[in-house]
Structures are given as structure tokens and as C-alpha cells.
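Checklist before submission:
- one chain only
- standard amino acids only
- sequence pasted in full

Submission:
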Amino acid sequence: MLLKTQSVRGALALIALAAGLGAAPVHAADSGAIPIEQSAEQTQTLMGTQSNFYRMLESWSTMPVMEISRRIGQDIDKEPSHLSLALTWAKDKVSVKDFSKVNSLYFLIYADMAERSALNVPPRSPYYMAYSKAAYQALTTFEVMFMTDAARCVNPNANASAAALLPPRYAALKYVFDSASPSEMDSYWDTALHYEAAAGSRPGNGEICSNGVAEALAVEAGQTPPERLDASFVDDAKWAPLRDKVRAGLAVKWRTAYAPAARAWQANKARADAAQAQAAAAERQKAAAAAAAKQAVDAAAVARQKATEEQVAKEKQERLDAQKREAGKYHDSYVPEPSTEYEDSGGSGD
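Returned file contents:
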């Protein structure tokens, strides 16, 4: 069930879509610039300027992840500038290549940090879309990993927390859901499923199986928490078919939920394509009319030039003819008058 290394790397790359985006610079967000991946030097600088917060994040790593999530949220509420480092830290937690260290709950933190980052930039700007897509990808990955982790638990109610965790977060990312093309949605789902498959060797999640997640949610909501249980797991032989069932069920669920949006997207695309085709036809017609008009102008210019040349030739010929007629008076049409010299001399002899 494990994927090839190349597929795993591809899944990791997509999971880390917002890797290093950090806090969007105001000038970049205003200008609509595409986010640039944060360099290692920039990350080190961020860790240096916020070293106390980074050390605090690292010190929390031994706590239940839901408690870490709560503390990060509280800290960012007080100091919003910590959001960028929290996003980078969460990304590092989900981008591990050692799947024995994977914890599905970190995907929830990553999704929350990316979604909060989207709220800090202009809606539907390039930054907004990058953060939102990263959040959606992380959330779908969290869902499949959380549900397969819960399927590993002896506790039959381990997956109950999904009802409180997922719907509000998906609702906040509805724009991504509604605007994504079918191929984009397939990419989100495939990446989530590939990552879960690649992480098949991960250990059981005691926080999920012991009702730790449900307890944290209940405390947050001011409700009575469920009974805390010992974390116990089914063996891998029993877990494998349960994982397959969960994965298949989620694939159907995702596609069924997306079907209306897919139809709307296809309809919108058909309308856009038709409008584009109509506009292209109008442009071609306009270009043809312009070409015909130019051809007519060119033909008229040629005709005028020809008429001008003919008129010039005619006038030239008329001048030549006039010159010949004038010259003919002295040359071609000249007839000498008869001589009277003999007649005069003969008369005098008589």
C-alpha cells in the first residue's frame, strides 16, 4: 500500500503548498503579486527575531496537539505577527519524511494557520488563494488521516470529534470548493489519499483513541467532556481493511459533495467558452471587415493611380500632338509658291 518515493515526494510538495509563504508583505498583497516561497535565510531570520515564540512552540511539542493548537491560537490573538512563524512551524510538522513521526492532528493546525493567513490579505487576491488552497489541502489530508487513525482505535466513538472539527472549517473554505475545477479537486483528494497511504507505517494516535480530542473540544465549548480512556488499538491486520473502507468512503463522500459545484463549474466553463468563441468570431469578423475595407481602399488607390497615370499620359500625348501640328505649319504642310521669273523675262523679249 506504500507509494513509490517519487509519489511520496510529490504528495509532500503539494501538502506544503503554503510552505514559507509567511506573512504577505503589504506592498505585494496590494499589487496582486504571486506569493514567493520563503527562503531558508528568511526563515532563520524569522526564527531569530521571534526566537522566544519559536522556543515556546518547541517546548509545547510534548503536549497533546489539541492543547498546542489552543495555545497557538491564543498567542496569535495577542500577537498577530507570530502567525507567519506558526505557519512555518506547522508546515514543518506535516512535512516530515519519517512517517513514524506523523501526527494527523498537526494537519489541523496547519490548516488553521493557513486559513488565518488568508484572512490577513485582500480577498481573492493571489495570496488569499494560495493560503486558502493550502488550508483546503491540509484539511482534506487531516480528514482522511484522522478518520483512518480513529478506525485504528478500540474506542468506537473515536471519530465523533470529526463532526465538530470539519464542517465549520470546510465552510470557511467554501470559496476554494466552489471555484476549483474538477481536476484541481481531484488533485486535492489524490494528494490527501496518497499521503495517508504513504504514512501507513505511522503509529497509533493515542490522543484520538483516548477521547483526548473530544475532551479538548468539550472544554473549549464549555461542555462536559467525555470519559478519558486508555489508548488502545486494533492490530494492523484488522486495521488494514478498515483503512481501505474509510478511504473509499471519503472518496465517494468528497465527490458526491462536490458534484453540484462540479456541474456549476462545467456550466460556467461552457458559458465562458461560448462567450470566448463568440468574441473570437466577432474579432475574426471584425478583422475580415477591416481587411475587406483595406482591400477596397487599396483598390480605389490603385484605380486612382491608374486614372492619374492615364490622364498624365493623355495630356502628354495631347501636348506632343499640338507640338507636331504647330511644327507642321513650317515643315510637313509647307508648299512653295509658283515662280513668275520666266514669264516676266519672256514678256520683255517680245
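Reviewer check: The chain has two domains: 5-234, 259-327.
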